[in-house]
Design goal:
alpha/beta, 10 strands, 280 residues, two-stranded antiparallel ribbon, globular, single chain
């Protein structure tokens, strides 16, 4: 069976604002990329002028279909300090980051997209834990703001188990919550099997990161290591066909968290790899 999902990538928008590596975009478009999930972790760049620059830079090359909205530091990506620094979970940073995410929604609207994604943080697995209900209220608040702007608010997966995420969705009760499904993150954080997670997330999947990696080992205070797609533990020959046969028709955003020409080469390799799995 052949599938026609668009293949794209996730890209920091700085490259569209005059970065020297912009020529890489032409390489990747020629290799088959069609769409882009624009990312910005710098709220100061989310201006109307920069939205226009991004639109001009991608015009005729890539369709922008999602915006990944970051928030201000601190942000420590490990199991020790991550729960206290990442996303909306830490109470100390929540109010400021809600305002920053609203800026992200406004910027996404200028880009003409209807999906905003982010890492919300280490959602507590115990719903009776102190602060959980405050997190529910915070997510409901930003979901309402997204709804007023005709947008979905999508959780990038990995820092919580799939069941925990779906429980939070149920408790928030908003119709415009979605999943930015990163199968590698479930493995890097040791939170679940991405193949089984397809059944749990179901129709809530709004975007997918095509990334690979291995489970933590050795030092279990640190995340596992990212790998080139097809060389890690995601098991894409099983994962991708199951995802597509489940009815997912959205984009497949390739993510490779390195820089330079090697990143471009790895993305091109991944395009060929997933096209084969899609039946082309």
């Amino acid at each position: 069976m052949k599938f026609n999902n668009s293949i794209g990538f996730i890209q920091d928008m700085k490259i569209f604002l005059g970065n020297d590596d912009y020529d890489m975009i032409d390489q990747l478009v020629d290799a088959g990329l069609e769409t882009v999930q624009v990312l910005s972790s710098d709220i100061h760049l989310m201006t109307p002028e920069n939205a226009e620059k991004v639109l001009r830079a991608t015009s005729g090359k890539l369709r922008i279909t999602s915006f990944w909205a970051g928030w201000s530091s601190p942000d420590v990506w490990n199991f020790v300090d991550g729960p206290a620094t990442l996303g909306l979970v830490p109470h100390a940073y929540r109010a400021k980051r809600l305002d920053e995410l609203k800026m992200g929604v406004d910027f996404a609207k200028k880009l003409g997209v209807h999906d905003v994604a982010t890492h919300v943080g280490f959602v507590p697995e115990t719903p009776t834990l102190e602060g959980y209900r405050d997190l529910v209220a915070a997510v409901r608040y930003i979901a309402d703001y997204c709804a007023k702007n005709d947008m979905y608010f999508n959780f990038e997966t990995g820092q919580e188990t799939p069941v925990t995420l779906m429980r939070l969705f149920s408790d928030v009760g908003a119709d415009n919550l979605g999943v930015n499904f990163d199968p590698a993150n479930l493995i890097l954080y040791g939170r679940g099997n991405p193949i089984d997670a397809i059944d749990i997330y179901g129709s809530k999947i709004r975007g997918v990161h095509v990334k690979d990696g291995d489970y933590p080992k050795g030092d279990f205070y640190k995340l596992g290591n990212e790998r080139v797609v097809g060389e890690g533990s995601v098991n894409y020959p099983v994962f991708l066909p199951k995802l597509l046969k489940s009815g997912y028709t959205g984009d497949l955003y390739i993510e490779r968290e390195i820089t330079g020409q090697q990143r471009a080469d790895d993305i091109k390799k991944t395009i060929t790899y997933i096209k084969t799995l899609m039946g082309e």
